[in-house]
Structures are given as structure tokens and as C-alpha cells.
Design a protein that fits this description.
- The chain is built from 17 helices and 2 strands.
- The chain has a two-stranded parallel sheet.
- Helix 2 runs antiparallel to helix 3 and helix 3 crosses helix 12.
- It has one domain.
- The radius of gyration is 20 Å and the shape is globular.
- The chain has 325 residues and is mostly helical.
């Protein structure tokens, strides 16, 4: 039985910020089931669906493959996020094996784990110097950018730019990071890549060797739009704010996107209780909705339709972090 830890006692005031919630969140790890079967079932269904779509790729119209491929690749990324937080078993190697194939091709899982756990230092959320998942840049870095790079960073602050250009931009950053590590002989960083190349090979042997899907078409219909959907989730989930608790959003979405993101759209709950499995987050949110919205300063969106309407062609703030040097 999982005990609802978040904000359950009267000793935790309604207006406490996220740092206080994080002090108690780790208690939940003691109540984890040995195996979280809903997550295992989800993984099995995901791989079966991926096998079906890729096996029948040449029989399906492109307009069916594109949304299905994007959805499955993004969902696999969401499953990787669950694994990073210690789900669905108590054995890290089992969890890692569950998401071993790299459906989106671009990011080593071990590197993602390293940077994402660093991101969960809530006191540093959105700080471009200390939060590896920040979408902002420091004033010093901005001053050193050329005009085209600045224009691109401004475009990435719109939702259209994020979805269309974001995957290429962030893949490019990762490749530059890899080349830099190779030039410096950074063994610690490079250690993430051999296993990742095997994970990519596993995916491509199936996709290209078995299903006869050209590499470029797999990127076009699966990997690139799957990364794009992942960037949709992260687009508005954090904002620069002086109050730590006010930096993390809630998107009250319907079942399609909630499943796609494994309820990580309820992001303030996840940051308060990172040890809670994806399928337990909605009940926790419903139980404590008013307090959670007090914690995050009412940073709430009523679905992704609202985000599209507000930010498709309009920047969500400046690329330069207002509080960072």
C-alpha cells in the first residue's frame, strides 16, 4: 500500500514551497511494490505496438504511420523517465533492460539518467548554469552568441520553433558535446556511448534489416516527431521564477496526452514526489489539487490546446534567464 505523503499533514502549510515538499518526498520509496506491474504491462504493450507498426510500415499510409510512430517513440521516452526514477522494479539493471532499445536514437540512457537526476535539484531549476534541462541561457552566453544563433534561440521559445526546429537543435548540441569529449579524451562522458550504440543497433537491425524501412524514413516518421512530442511536454513545464515552488507547471490534460507523458504533465506532483509511479500521480493530484496550485503559484494550463493557442507563434518569455548572470 502506498501512503500518500505529499502535503497530508496539517503541519505542512498551504503556501509552503517545493523545497519543503521535496524534504518528505523520499519517504515514498519505502512503500514501493517489488514489481510495478502496470508499468511492465505498459512496456509490453508499447513494444508490441511498435513491432506492429514497423512490421506493417509498407502497408500503412504515411498519415497513419506518422502519428503512431511519433506517439510510440515519445511514449518510450516517457518510459525511460520512469526507469530513471527507479521504476518498475527495485533492480536498476532490470529497469534499464526494459528500455534498452533506443527508439529515438539520439540520447544515451545512462547520460539522460545522470542529467535528469541533476535536474531534480529544485533549488536550481531553470538556472542555465546548474540545471542541465534548462531552456534558458545565461546573459554571458547570450552576449557571446552570433545573430543567427540568437534568432534560433528566440524561435525555440515559440512552440512552433520548439516542435519543428527543437529536435535538430538539441541533437546538434549532443553531437557537438560528443565531438568535444572525443577531442578532449573525456572518458567519463564517452563511457555513456558504447552501450548506447548497441541500443541504437538493436533498433536499426529490426527497423532496417527486418522491416526494410529506410533509415531516413524511420527518422522522418518515428524518431524526429517522437522527440518533437517530448519537447512539447517539456516546453512549458518550468518557468524562471524567484520562488522555487512557482517554477513547475501543471497541465490538466486528457487521457491521450496524459498516457503519452505518463502523467508527467502533472509536473508539480512529480517534482514533489519523484518516487511515485506514473499511474498513482492523478489520484495524488486530485487529492491535493488546491494545495499544489498554491505551491506552484497557480502555474496551470487547461490542456495542451491552451499551450498551442497561447504560444504557437509567440515566445514564452525571453531565452535569457532573468535571474541568472
Amino acid at each position: 500500500m502506498r501512503i500518500p505523503i505529499l502535503l497530508t499533514g496539517s503541519s505542512v502549510p498551504d503556501n509552503c514551497h517545493m523545497a519543503k515538499a521535496n524534504e518528505i518526498s523520499h519517504v515514498t520509496s519505502r512503500f514501493r511494490a517489488t514489481v510495478e506491474w502496470p508499468t511492465v504491462a505498459l512496456a509490453a504493450g508499447l513494444y508490441l505496438a511498435f513491432a506492429f507498426v514497423t512490421w506493417n510500415y509498407h502497408a500503412l499510409p504515411w498519415w497513419a504511420v506518422l502519428p503512431l510512430g511519433a506517439y510510440l517513440v515519445c511514449l518510450h521516452g516517457s518510459l525511460q523517465h520512469e526507469v530513471v526514477h527507479g521504476h518498475p522494479t527495485r533492480w536498476r539493471w532490470v529497469n534499464a533492460a526494459l528500455v534498452f532499445p533506443s527508439l529515438w536514437l539520439w540520447l544515451p540512457h545512462s547520460r539522460y539518467r545522470e542529467t535528469h537526476l541533476a535536474h531534480h535539484n529544485d533549488a536550481q531549476l531553470t538556472d542555465p548554469l546548474d540545471d542541465p534541462e534548462s531552456s534558458y541561457v545565461s546573459a554571458a552566453r547570450w552576449a557571446g552568441m552570433g545573430p543567427l544563433h540568437r534568432l534560433l534561440r528566440q524561435a525555440l521559445m515559440t512552440l512552433a520553433g520548439r516542435l519543428l526546429l527543437g529536435p535538430a537543435y538539441y541533437i546538434g548540441l549532443k553531437l557537438r558535446e560528443l565531438l568535444w569529449a572525443l577531442s578532449r579524451g573525456d572518458r567519463r562522458y564517452l563511457a555513456h556511448w558504447p552501450l548506447h550504440l548497441v541500443a541504437v543497433a538493436v533498433t536499426l537491425v529490426w527497423v532496417i534489416g527486418v522491416c526494410d524501412i529506410p533509415f531516413g524514413e524511420y527518422v522522418l516518421f518515428f524518431a524526429y516527431p517522437g522527440i518533437s512530442l517530448t519537447l512539447l511536454r517539456s516546453y512549458a513545464e518550468h518557468r524562471a521564477a524567484e520562488e522555487v515552488g512557482h517554477r513547475t507547471a501543471v497541465v490538466e490534460s486528457g487521457p491521450v496526452f496524459s498516457l503519452l507523458f505518463l502523467n508527467n504533465n502533472l509536473h508539480v506532483v512529480h517534482h514533489a514526489e519523484p518516487g511515485v509511479a506514473w499511474y498513482a500521480l492523478p489520484a495524488l493530484y486530485r487529492r491535493h489539487r488546491n494545495r499544489l496550485l498554491a505551491i506552484n503559484g497557480g502555474y496551470l494550463f487547461h490542456g495542451y490546446r491552451e499551450i498551442f493557442a497561447r504560444f504557437l507563434l509567440r515566445r514564452r518569455g525571453s531565452p535569457v534567464h532573468p535571474l541568472a548572470v
